[in-house]
Design goal:
InterPro entries: UPF0324_pro, UPF0324_YeiH-like. It is found in: Cell membrane. Belongs to the UPF0324 family. By secondary structure, this protein is mainly alpha-helical. The protein has one domain. The protein is 79% helix and 0% strand. The protein is built from 18 helices and no strands. Helix 1 crosses helix 16, helix 6 packs across helix 18 and helix 12 runs antiparallel to helix 15. The longest helix is centred in the N-terminal third of the chain and has 32 residues.
């Protein structure tokens, strides 16, 4: 990096951090908190507002691109690795075979259906993959993890995050209401599996589980959701290997990697798994792990904010309603298929 680029680089990072602090402040407002809107989601909104209004008028704004790219690429990959401190191998063992099998079926079918439907709807394959991964695995975190593997454009990431947050938030209020009304004919264990295997974000699962006023549902739903989060790593590895073969030689995919497969391989996914294994040994004090998770949340929020700054509103208009239609269909699939699996498959596997 040239000396003249150092100041703009750190200025851009400081700017992203400032917007992220603002996102945390907004997320702490009571009304926003009740909606379970995380600082990550608020950060990308603030970033998009700034990037599409004031940024073009900032003197030398093009010089800030290096800092924004650092936050949305390098910082993002690092944050995904440390996301593993939320999980342990014991989480998988606690929920047992029914939760593992149902999670695998849900994730696999949503990913396959989403990519297939994306082609039928005429969507860009990157956008279809991002939307499908967010719906299938863990919302915005999955979209962020998938973004560097497919080398998606910032506006595609922003659209995918918007869709999963929208339908995940609807589900967070819908599931408790239907459960209390008796529409979901499931016992607490089945409802926990259903909630954890089909809601988009971890925050949505926590919110819905607590709203049902049942400890079994609240605890087991989160554990079921954590297994879906673990599935993010193998998904990214498999996706990376598939793209190595299907997009080999394409300039937009190769980028500056020089064609070497090991430079394009999603190593951060391996790091994510290694951190989970390390965390399973419980070697660090819980206070230290808690601090790591807080810093990691902030890093993820910074990455989302930086992606928002680089997302062009005009691209949203060009994409139209189709990404939301795809997410809506996947949402319906999650509700229907998830219910059938929790109702009939879970007892058979127990």
């Amino acid at each position: 990096m040239k000396r003249s680029q150092v100041a703009p680089f750190f200025l851009a990072i400081a700017l992203v951090a400032a917007f992220t602090f603002a996102a945390y402040g907004i997320a702490g407002i009571r009304v926003v908190k009740e909606l379970s809107l995380s600082p990550m989601v608020i950060g990308i909104v603030l970033g998009m507002l700034f990037g599409n209004t004031l940024l073009p008028y900032v003197l030398g704004s093009w010089e800030l691109k290096g800092g924004f790219k650092f936050c949305s690429k390098t910082l993002l990959r690092t944050a995904i690795v440390f996301y593993g401190f939320r999980l342990t191998v014991g989480n998988v063992m606690e929920i047992g075979v029914p939760g593992i099998v149902i999670d695998i079926i849900v994730v696999t079918t949503v990913l396959l259906l989403g990519t297939w439907l994306g082609r039928r709807l005429g969507l860009d394959s990157d956008l279809a993959i991002l939307t499908s991964s967010g719906s299938a695995i863990c919302g915005a975190a999955a979209v962020l993890g998938t973004e560097p593997v497919v080398r998606a454009k910032p506006y595609q990431t922003a659209i995918a995050v918007t869709t999963v947050v929208l339908f995940g938030t609807i589900a967070m209020f819908l599931y408790p209401a239907l459960y209390r009304a008796g529409v979901f004919d499931l016992n607490p264990t089945q409802m926990a599996l259903y909630t954890g295997s089909t809601l988009h974000e971890v925050a949505h699962v926590v919110g819905a589980g607590n709203a049902m006023n049942d400890v079994v549902i609240a605890n087991n739903a989160v554990i079921t959701k954590m297994i879906r989060v673990i599935l993010l790593a193998p998904f990214l590895i498999i996706l990376g290997l598939i793209l190595q073969r299907t997009r080999r030689g394409k300039p937009e995919f190769e980028g500056n990697a020089g064609g070497a497969w090991w430079r394009r391989f999603p190593w951060f996914a391996i790091g994510f798994l290694l951190v989970i294994c390390f965390n399973s040994f419980d070697l660090l004090p819980h206070s230290a792990v808690g601090m790591i998770n807080k810093l990691d949340n902030f890093a993820l929020a910074m990455a989302m904010t930086a992606l928002g700054i680089d997302a062009d509103f005009r691209k949203f208009k060009e994409a139209g309603f189709r990404p939301f239609l795809l997410a809506l269909i996947l949402f319906g699939w999650l509700i229907g298929v998830g219910y059938l699996l929790a109702k009939y498959l879970a007892p058979a596997l127990a």
